[in-house]
Amino acid sequence: MVSERGTNDFQSPMMDSVLNHLTCFQCHHGLRNPITLPCGHSVCSECLPTSHENYPCGFVTPQPCLTCPFPSCSFQYPSLSGVKLDVTLANISQICLQEIPQPQAQKPIDSDSSSPNPELPTLATILQPEFECQICYRILFEPLTTSCGHTFCKECLLRTTDHSSRCPTCRNAISFSQVRDQQTNHALSRLVELLFPKSLYQRKVLPAEVTEENEAVPILTGGLVFPDITYSLHIFQPAHRLLIRRCLLTTKKHFGIVTRGSSNALAEYGTLVQIIASQPLPDGRFLIQVKGLHKLRILESKNLDGYHSARVDLVEDAALVSEKEVECSSTEDMILAIKAFVNSIGKSHPQLLARLNQLYGPPPQAMIPFSHWASCVIPIDDQEKYKLLCVDSANLRLLMIVRWIETTRKRWGFVGCPVM
């Protein structure tokens, strides 16, 4: 491409490819004062389309409306007020059109790219500082340009909005929903593919700690949860929001929930859960539903971007301990005693029973899920409930609950079914 706006006439194929990506679709010249629209397309500031009256974005009455000039897009915007110069794209255009001499563009040196094309290494080296995210200082991955004109990796900017609603460069106001919904910068994305293929490949690979093929499991520190039970969670802490975003990118959507011990360290046992429903909120928080899958035991843990990642063993309940061995009544009698105790709570505190049913549902029929359900609904503190999670036998778990019921019944006069 030969630009009427540039002084250099580059003839090398690689430079031609780069300049083609820096061409305005409207005027077919090199980008001058580029503006990147929320749909990710970039045009010269003077080539912005004029507004017309339309019904964009669900408006009932006609509003001033701008339409993206790219035929494959045609996205409509109620307003582009406040959208500023794309600083990164402007800097790259300036370097390519005015500052790289032709002999240097053809000189072979080592590069990020493995391409045999000799002029690519020098181009990549000269342009690399402009393609570095100013949050992570790596090559831009899924580059997103804010309305104030600054470009960062999309994931980096999302993580920034977990802590602040300001642009990291100029402190202009930005929101999580704006970052989440905006499209990546198409011109910069294509240039990264062209100039930095190796770095792009490395950035596309999720960290090993957050992939399901790795042994490590992301750990959310929170309340006590049990297998077989469905929970509704409000995720608001910045590190936990990052954990959930990463978890939603995986196939299985698994993570662990572990409480903290007396010394504030991770407890030894927790529960592996699966996200079964999620609702992102405009400010970056999540409302999620999870189902407890397996009990887990922490073998080793480390900090990963503010949350824990751990190697774990999944622990299944062992064979049932014989009723003679533990000197207790039959399993059926223990289940009846627990149900009777829960019903007695409902007679004196019907609202509490309704709340328990809303949170944990009706009692399951199978013994192991029932033992987990009973562990949730029984009104004891979490330190005592944690002992129930550590037990590896369903009927021993039921026995511990029944013994607690007997102690409570004698102390407070609850009406229940004595089985001991």
Automatic annotation (TrEMBL):
This is LON-domain-containing protein. It comes from Basidiobolus meristosporus CBS 931.73. GO terms for molecular function: ubiquitin protein ligase activity; zinc ion binding. It holds the Pfam family zf-C3HC4_2. Keywords: Metal-binding, Zinc, Zinc-finger. Coiled coil: none annotated. The keyword Zinc applies. The keyword Nucleus does not apply. Residues 133-171 form the RING-type domain. Residues 214-409 form the Lon N-terminal domain.
